[in-house]
Amino acid sequence: MLKEFTKGIFRENPIFIIVLGLCPALGVSTKVINAIGMGAGVIFVLLGSNIFVSLLKNFIPEKVRIPSYIVIIASFVTIVQMVMEAFAPALYKSLGVFVPLIVVNCIILGRAEAFANKNTVMSSIMDALGMGVGFTLALLLIAFIRESLGAGTITLFPVGSFSGVIRIPVLADNPIRVFGLAAGALLVIGFLKAFFNWYSERRAR
Amino acid sequence: MTYIGIIITFVFINNFILTQFLGLCPFIGVSKNIESAVGMGFAVTFVMALASLATWAIQNFILVPLNIEFLQTITFILVIASLVQFVELVIQNISPALYKALGIYLPLITTNCAVLGIAIISVQSKFNALESFVAGFAAGLGFLLAILLMSAIRTKLDSEWIPKPFRGIPIAFITGGLMALAFMAFDKALLTNLIG
């Protein structure tokens, strides 16, 4: 059971190993807080859709399974949209179009099709948590690199007197702006993927 | 915004792949050779233009009058999925040759975030019917342009020596990054200078 959880974090990491769900990973990774918000949304939707798909796997006819999965996923995404808009409007605004786009995040449909419709509810929950956490960690890594180099800050939640923004001394005055832009995102993920290729090959040897 | 403005904006300035990160999966996955890239590009352009128009109609004739805009995400994705299925049937009957060329790409388009993306962006930008259609078409052309350039570069890269960990996907991303840098030359100022 624990194996279903840990596989998503490194060995089958959705972003770096399976390479799915890239659009949100790059689109929202300009700030660490956005990565946290997106990760939470994806974990929730993935958990909900995996549970429902594995519960309903014997009732959904084979032929209409993909549209059915999409409806299940879209319902959970709508819940996320409403909750986020009500309780974290600033975050909702800065994630923008990428919140409704969780529907077409290939990881979620991919897990429903490849895992949840063949497995028990319990292992589907573990699979969803593992994949969701793996996705969130990958997103955090990309966002951390992009925000610290591109803006010289790390933005977290504001708590009490702490504004939520950590400034990195030298970089905050001389940020490398390109990392905050589209080009920087593609370069960062290219180099990270190359690093993971190199690392897994070294480990295999 | 004028129609020419919309076209320039969606093809160059807000290119879906290189500045908005929409449609990256097919951009990386289907750009290994030029033929399949062109096939995918045309299929996406076709579906995006129709989807943008269809979702405009759904939004303005059903969701807004009935006051159920909160169902936007779920309705749009269903409309897009049925539209893709419909387009597939029509092409199959009208032009088997075109179906042979585009057929395998069509099912993949439902989960292409560029299609749902343009539907939502058109609604948010408060476009009218024709503007939505033009925006969808232009965003599709932008996708076609980016994936075509990418596949041409990747074909060249095949004959070059690349360090092993970078082969395949990593070098494709880095190429995309450099293309995005080049596309930064197209910005709002350019649009203002061109058409005022």
The outline of chain A comes out as globular
How much helical structure, as a percent, in the residues of chain B?
over 70%
- The level of helicity of chain A is 55-70%
Q: Characterize the quaternary organization of these chains.
A: heterodimer
Termini of chain B, distance in Å?
11 Å
**Distance between the amino and carboxyl termini of chain A:** 27 Å
Q: Based on DSSP secondary structure assignment, what is the total number of beta strands of chain B?
A: 0
Choose one word for the global shape of chain B.
globular
Structural class of chain A: mainly alpha
What can you tell me about this protein's structure?
The complex is a heterodimer of chains A (205) and B (196). Chain A is mainly alpha-helical and 205 residues long. Helices cover 66% and strands 3% of the residues of chain A. Chain A has one domain. Chain A has nine helices and two strands; from the N terminus they run αααααααββαα. A two-stranded antiparallel sheet of chain A has the order 1-2. Chain A is globular. Chain B is mainly α and 196 residues long. In chain B, helix 4 (72-94) crosses helix 7 (113-124) and helix 8 (129-157) crosses helix 9 (169-183). The radius of gyration of chain B is 18 Å and the shape is globular. The mean pLDDT of chain B is 88. Classes of the chains: A mainly alpha (205), B mainly alpha (196). The interface between A and B is large, with 41 and 45 residues.
How is the topology of this model organized?
The complex is a heterodimer of chains A (205) and B (196).
Chain A: H1 2-7, H2 22-27, H3 32-55, H4 65-87, H5 89-95, H6 106-116, H7 121-150, E1 153-155, E2 165-167, H8 169-173, H9 182-204
Antiparallel strand pairs in A: 1-2
Helix pairs in contact in A: 3-4, 3-6, 3-7, 4-5, 4-6, 6-7, 7-9
Chain B: H1 3-13, H2 24-29, H3 34-63, H4 72-94, H5 96-102, H6 106-109, H7 113-124, H8 129-157, H9 169-183, H10 188-195
Helix pairs in contact in B: 1-8, 3-4, 3-7, 3-8, 4-5, 4-7, 7-8, 8-9
